[in-house]
Amino acid sequence: MTQPNAASSQPQPDISLQGAVDLSGLGQAPGAAQPPQQPGAPAGEALLSLPDAVVNGGEADLEQFAALSQRMPVLVEMHSASSPDSKALSPVLAEIVRSAEGRLVLLRLDLDAHPTLGNQAQVLALLGGRPAPLFAGNPPKDQLVQVISEVLAVAAQQGLTGYAEITGDADGVAEDAAPAEAPLHPLHQEAKDALERGDIATAKSAYERALAESPADDDAKIGLAQVSLLERLQGKTLEQIRSAAAENPNDIDAQFDVADLDLSGGHVDDAFNRLLSLFTKVDADGKTRVRERLIELFDVVGGDEPRVVRARQRLTSLLFA
Questions:
Q1: Cross-strand bridge partners of residue 105
Q2: What is the model's pTM?
Q3: Which residue from 30, 147, 271, 274 has the fewest beta carbons nearer than 10 Å?
Protein backbone atom coordinates (compact mmCIF):
# COMPACT_ATOMS: atom_id res chain seq x y z
CA MET A 1 0.00 0.00 0.00
CA THR A 2 1.35 3.37 -1.00
CA GLN A 3 1.72 5.74 1.95
CA PRO A 4 0.70 9.40 1.37
CA ASN A 5 3.67 11.67 0.75
CA ALA A 6 3.75 14.97 2.62
CA ALA A 7 5.29 16.63 -0.43
CA SER A 8 2.67 15.32 -2.87
CA SER A 9 -0.15 17.63 -3.94
CA GLN A 10 -2.50 14.73 -4.73
CA PRO A 11 -2.05 11.83 -2.28
CA GLN A 12 -3.54 8.62 -3.64
CA PRO A 13 -3.95 5.99 -0.91
CA ASP A 14 -4.74 2.56 -2.29
CA ILE A 15 -7.15 0.78 0.04
CA SER A 16 -7.98 -2.45 -1.67
CA LEU A 17 -10.23 -4.32 0.75
CA GLN A 18 -13.80 -5.23 -0.16
CA GLY A 19 -16.00 -2.19 -0.70
CA ALA A 20 -13.10 0.22 -0.25
CA VAL A 21 -12.78 3.56 -1.99
CA ASP A 22 -10.05 6.15 -2.51
CA LEU A 23 -9.88 8.45 0.52
CA SER A 24 -7.72 11.12 -1.03
CA GLY A 25 -10.57 13.35 -2.13
CA LEU A 26 -12.26 13.50 1.26
CA GLY A 27 -12.24 16.61 3.41
CA GLN A 28 -9.40 18.30 1.55
CA ALA A 29 -8.02 21.10 3.69
CA PRO A 30 -6.46 24.18 2.11
CA GLY A 31 -2.74 24.79 2.43
CA ALA A 32 0.23 22.49 2.46
CA ALA A 33 -0.20 18.83 3.37
CA GLN A 34 1.02 17.76 6.78
CA PRO A 35 3.05 14.66 7.60
CA PRO A 36 1.28 11.66 9.08
CA GLN A 37 1.02 11.78 12.88
CA GLN A 38 3.22 9.28 14.65
CA PRO A 39 1.48 6.84 17.01
CA GLY A 40 1.31 7.84 20.65
CA ALA A 41 2.17 11.48 20.00
CA PRO A 42 -0.97 13.52 19.23
CA ALA A 43 0.13 17.00 18.19
CA GLY A 44 -3.21 18.59 17.31
CA GLU A 45 -5.90 20.10 19.51
CA ALA A 46 -7.81 18.14 22.15
CA LEU A 47 -11.41 18.40 20.91
CA LEU A 48 -13.35 16.46 23.55
CA SER A 49 -12.99 14.01 26.44
CA LEU A 50 -14.38 10.47 26.26
CA PRO A 51 -14.15 7.53 28.66
CA ASP A 52 -13.47 5.30 25.65
CA ALA A 53 -12.50 5.86 22.01
CA VAL A 54 -15.25 3.37 21.07
CA VAL A 55 -18.74 4.84 21.38
CA ASN A 56 -22.13 3.14 21.11
CA GLY A 57 -24.57 5.49 19.43
CA GLY A 58 -27.57 5.83 17.16
CA GLU A 59 -28.76 7.68 14.08
CA ALA A 60 -29.03 10.93 16.03
CA ASP A 61 -25.28 10.81 16.76
CA LEU A 62 -24.24 10.66 13.11
CA GLU A 63 -24.60 14.41 12.60
CA GLN A 64 -22.49 15.15 15.68
CA PHE A 65 -19.71 12.77 14.68
CA ALA A 66 -19.79 14.02 11.08
CA ALA A 67 -19.15 17.49 12.49
CA LEU A 68 -16.33 16.09 14.63
CA SER A 69 -14.77 14.56 11.51
CA GLN A 70 -14.14 18.08 10.21
CA ARG A 71 -11.27 18.19 12.71
CA MET A 72 -10.26 14.56 13.34
CA PRO A 73 -10.84 11.16 11.70
CA VAL A 74 -13.91 9.15 12.69
CA LEU A 75 -14.76 5.55 11.92
CA VAL A 76 -18.35 4.29 11.79
CA GLU A 77 -18.99 0.60 12.37
CA MET A 78 -22.44 -0.57 11.29
CA HIS A 79 -22.83 -3.94 12.99
CA SER A 80 -25.47 -6.59 13.52
CA ALA A 81 -25.77 -9.45 16.00
CA SER A 82 -27.12 -11.59 13.14
CA SER A 83 -23.83 -11.28 11.22
CA PRO A 84 -21.07 -13.68 12.37
CA ASP A 85 -18.44 -11.56 10.57
CA SER A 86 -19.70 -8.45 12.33
CA LYS A 87 -19.57 -10.10 15.76
CA ALA A 88 -16.02 -11.35 15.14
CA LEU A 89 -14.83 -8.00 13.80
CA SER A 90 -16.10 -5.74 16.59
CA PRO A 91 -13.64 -6.61 19.40
CA VAL A 92 -10.63 -6.60 17.03
CA LEU A 93 -11.59 -3.26 15.52
CA ALA A 94 -12.17 -1.80 18.99
CA GLU A 95 -8.73 -2.95 20.11
CA ILE A 96 -7.05 -1.27 17.13
CA VAL A 97 -8.97 1.98 17.60
CA ARG A 98 -8.14 2.10 21.30
CA SER A 99 -4.47 1.58 20.52
CA ALA A 100 -4.51 4.85 18.53
CA GLU A 101 -4.84 6.69 21.87
CA GLY A 102 -7.54 9.12 20.85
CA ARG A 103 -6.25 10.07 17.40
CA LEU A 104 -9.48 8.67 15.98
CA VAL A 105 -12.78 7.52 17.44
CA LEU A 106 -15.18 4.76 16.49
CA LEU A 107 -18.95 5.26 16.45
CA ARG A 108 -20.76 1.90 16.58
CA LEU A 109 -24.29 1.75 15.13
CA ASP A 110 -26.50 -1.28 15.78
CA LEU A 111 -28.36 -2.08 12.55
CA ASP A 112 -30.81 -4.30 14.44
CA ALA A 113 -31.86 -1.31 16.58
CA HIS A 114 -31.79 1.15 13.66
CA PRO A 115 -33.22 -0.68 10.61
CA THR A 116 -33.49 2.56 8.61
CA LEU A 117 -29.69 2.43 8.28
CA GLY A 118 -29.99 -0.69 6.13
CA ASN A 119 -28.76 -4.21 6.72
CA GLN A 120 -25.19 -4.07 5.39
CA ALA A 121 -22.65 -4.60 8.18
CA GLN A 122 -19.65 -2.49 7.19
CA VAL A 123 -17.08 0.05 8.37
CA LEU A 124 -16.83 3.57 6.97
CA ALA A 125 -14.46 6.48 7.46
CA LEU A 126 -15.61 10.05 8.01
CA LEU A 127 -13.08 12.66 6.95
CA GLY A 128 -14.12 16.28 6.62
CA GLY A 129 -17.74 15.28 7.08
CA ARG A 130 -17.73 12.98 4.05
CA PRO A 131 -18.23 9.18 4.33
CA ALA A 132 -16.14 6.57 2.53
CA PRO A 133 -16.78 2.81 2.81
CA LEU A 134 -13.65 1.00 4.00
CA PHE A 135 -14.61 -2.66 4.14
CA ALA A 136 -17.31 -5.23 4.87
CA GLY A 137 -16.92 -8.68 6.32
CA ASN A 138 -14.10 -9.57 8.71
CA PRO A 139 -10.65 -8.89 7.17
CA PRO A 140 -7.49 -10.17 8.90
CA LYS A 141 -6.18 -8.01 11.72
CA ASP A 142 -3.02 -6.99 9.84
CA GLN A 143 -5.15 -5.63 6.99
CA LEU A 144 -7.33 -3.74 9.47
CA VAL A 145 -4.25 -2.15 11.01
CA GLN A 146 -3.00 -1.18 7.54
CA VAL A 147 -6.30 0.43 6.52
CA ILE A 148 -6.66 2.39 9.76
CA SER A 149 -3.05 3.56 9.48
CA GLU A 150 -3.91 4.79 5.98
CA VAL A 151 -6.93 6.68 7.32
CA LEU A 152 -4.76 8.36 9.97
CA ALA A 153 -2.15 9.29 7.37
CA VAL A 154 -4.68 10.82 4.99
CA ALA A 155 -6.34 12.68 7.88
CA ALA A 156 -2.96 14.13 8.92
CA GLN A 157 -2.23 15.25 5.35
CA GLN A 158 -5.57 17.02 5.26
CA GLY A 159 -4.92 18.80 8.57
CA LEU A 160 -7.43 16.75 10.58
CA THR A 161 -5.11 16.40 13.57
CA GLY A 162 -7.50 16.98 16.46
CA TYR A 163 -7.81 14.21 18.99
CA ALA A 164 -10.00 12.97 21.84
CA GLU A 165 -8.70 12.81 25.39
CA ILE A 166 -9.50 9.29 26.60
CA THR A 167 -10.18 9.42 30.32
CA GLY A 168 -10.54 5.67 30.87
CA ASP A 169 -7.67 3.29 31.53
CA ALA A 170 -6.71 2.06 28.05
CA ASP A 171 -4.61 -0.77 29.49
CA GLY A 172 -7.56 -2.01 31.52
CA VAL A 173 -10.10 -2.05 28.69
CA ALA A 174 -10.95 -5.59 27.68
CA GLU A 175 -11.53 -6.38 24.03
CA ASP A 176 -15.19 -7.08 24.71
CA ALA A 177 -15.73 -4.16 27.07
CA ALA A 178 -18.92 -2.20 26.55
CA PRO A 179 -18.21 0.97 24.56
CA ALA A 180 -19.03 4.34 26.04
CA GLU A 181 -22.34 5.99 25.34
CA ALA A 182 -22.23 8.81 22.81
CA PRO A 183 -21.65 12.24 24.38
CA LEU A 184 -24.76 14.39 24.58
CA HIS A 185 -25.30 17.33 22.27
CA PRO A 186 -24.31 20.49 24.23
CA LEU A 187 -27.92 21.72 24.38
CA HIS A 188 -29.15 18.32 25.57
CA GLN A 189 -26.43 18.34 28.22
CA GLU A 190 -27.50 21.84 29.26
CA ALA A 191 -31.10 20.62 29.63
CA LYS A 192 -30.04 17.56 31.61
CA ASP A 193 -27.89 19.63 33.97
CA ALA A 194 -30.73 22.12 34.45
CA LEU A 195 -33.21 19.38 35.33
CA GLU A 196 -30.80 17.89 37.84
CA ARG A 197 -30.80 21.20 39.72
CA GLY A 198 -34.57 21.65 39.30
CA ASP A 199 -34.37 24.50 36.77
CA ILE A 200 -37.24 23.56 34.46
CA ALA A 201 -37.29 26.89 32.59
CA THR A 202 -33.65 26.58 31.51
CA ALA A 203 -34.16 22.94 30.49
CA LYS A 204 -37.17 23.93 28.39
CA SER A 205 -35.23 26.74 26.74
CA ALA A 206 -32.35 24.39 25.90
CA TYR A 207 -34.67 21.86 24.24
CA GLU A 208 -36.46 24.63 22.31
CA ARG A 209 -33.13 25.90 21.00
CA ALA A 210 -32.11 22.35 20.05
CA LEU A 211 -35.32 21.95 18.05
CA ALA A 212 -34.86 25.33 16.38
CA GLU A 213 -31.36 24.23 15.39
CA SER A 214 -32.48 20.77 14.23
CA PRO A 215 -36.27 20.30 13.80
CA ALA A 216 -35.77 16.54 13.22
CA ASP A 217 -34.16 16.07 16.67
CA ASP A 218 -36.57 13.52 18.17
CA ASP A 219 -34.74 13.44 21.50
CA ALA A 220 -35.18 17.20 21.87
CA LYS A 221 -38.85 16.87 20.95
CA ILE A 222 -39.37 14.22 23.63
CA GLY A 223 -37.35 16.21 26.17
CA LEU A 224 -39.39 19.34 25.48
CA ALA A 225 -42.65 17.42 25.96
CA GLN A 226 -41.40 16.03 29.27
CA VAL A 227 -40.24 19.35 30.70
CA SER A 228 -43.42 21.07 29.47
CA LEU A 229 -45.43 18.55 31.49
CA LEU A 230 -43.32 19.29 34.57
CA GLU A 231 -43.75 23.02 33.99
CA ARG A 232 -47.54 22.70 33.81
CA LEU A 233 -47.63 20.86 37.15
CA GLN A 234 -45.45 23.39 38.97
CA GLY A 235 -47.22 25.07 41.90
CA LYS A 236 -50.26 22.78 41.76
CA THR A 237 -51.12 20.25 44.46
CA LEU A 238 -52.66 16.85 43.85
CA GLU A 239 -55.75 17.82 45.84
CA GLN A 240 -56.26 21.02 43.87
CA ILE A 241 -55.93 19.24 40.54
CA ARG A 242 -58.30 16.39 41.32
CA SER A 243 -60.89 18.61 43.01
CA ALA A 244 -60.99 20.99 40.03
CA ALA A 245 -61.41 18.10 37.59
CA ALA A 246 -64.19 16.49 39.65
CA GLU A 247 -66.10 19.77 39.92
CA ASN A 248 -65.67 20.59 36.21
CA PRO A 249 -65.80 17.31 34.27
CA ASN A 250 -66.03 19.07 30.89
CA ASP A 251 -63.40 21.73 31.60
CA ILE A 252 -60.57 20.95 29.21
CA ASP A 253 -57.81 22.59 31.23
CA ALA A 254 -58.89 20.85 34.43
CA GLN A 255 -58.90 17.47 32.69
CA PHE A 256 -55.52 18.23 31.09
CA ASP A 257 -54.07 18.80 34.57
CA VAL A 258 -55.31 15.41 35.81
CA ALA A 259 -53.94 13.68 32.71
CA ASP A 260 -50.55 15.33 33.34
CA LEU A 261 -50.69 14.25 36.97
CA ASP A 262 -51.59 10.66 36.05
CA LEU A 263 -48.85 10.44 33.45
CA SER A 264 -46.23 11.86 35.80
CA GLY A 265 -47.23 9.20 38.35
CA GLY A 266 -46.93 6.36 35.84
CA HIS A 267 -50.69 5.91 35.28
CA VAL A 268 -50.34 6.10 31.52
CA ASP A 269 -53.57 4.36 30.51
CA ASP A 270 -55.58 6.51 32.95
CA ALA A 271 -54.16 9.67 31.38
CA PHE A 272 -54.87 8.53 27.84
CA ASN A 273 -58.37 7.20 28.63
CA ARG A 274 -59.34 10.46 30.33
CA LEU A 275 -58.41 12.54 27.30
CA LEU A 276 -59.90 10.10 24.80
CA SER A 277 -63.21 10.19 26.71
CA LEU A 278 -63.02 13.99 26.84
CA PHE A 279 -62.51 14.08 23.06
CA THR A 280 -66.05 12.72 22.53
CA LYS A 281 -67.64 15.45 24.71
CA VAL A 282 -66.16 18.69 23.40
CA ASP A 283 -66.71 20.87 20.34
CA ALA A 284 -64.47 21.06 17.27
CA ASP A 285 -62.01 23.51 18.82
CA GLY A 286 -61.87 21.38 21.95
CA LYS A 287 -61.22 18.26 19.90
CA THR A 288 -58.24 19.99 18.29
CA ARG A 289 -56.82 20.91 21.71
CA VAL A 290 -57.34 17.39 23.09
CA ARG A 291 -55.77 15.80 20.03
CA GLU A 292 -52.71 18.07 20.28
CA ARG A 293 -52.30 17.34 24.00
CA LEU A 294 -52.59 13.60 23.40
CA ILE A 295 -49.90 13.74 20.72
CA GLU A 296 -47.66 15.65 23.14
CA LEU A 297 -48.22 13.02 25.85
CA PHE A 298 -47.49 10.29 23.31
CA ASP A 299 -44.07 11.91 22.86
CA VAL A 300 -43.51 11.90 26.63
CA VAL A 301 -44.10 8.15 26.85
CA GLY A 302 -42.49 7.16 23.53
CA GLY A 303 -44.06 6.50 20.16
CA ASP A 304 -43.34 2.75 20.11
CA GLU A 305 -44.66 2.04 23.62
CA PRO A 306 -47.63 -0.41 23.38
CA ARG A 307 -49.96 1.83 25.42
CA VAL A 308 -49.20 4.71 23.08
CA VAL A 309 -49.87 2.53 20.03
CA ARG A 310 -53.26 1.50 21.44
CA ALA A 311 -54.24 5.05 22.38
CA ARG A 312 -53.14 6.37 18.98
CA GLN A 313 -55.31 3.77 17.27
CA ARG A 314 -58.32 4.83 19.39
CA LEU A 315 -57.66 8.48 18.60
CA THR A 316 -57.52 7.73 14.88
CA SER A 317 -60.86 5.89 15.11
CA LEU A 318 -62.44 8.84 16.91
CA LEU A 319 -61.09 11.31 14.35
CA PHE A 320 -62.82 9.44 11.53
CA ALA A 321 -65.95 8.44 13.44
A1: 74
A2: 0.47
A3: 30
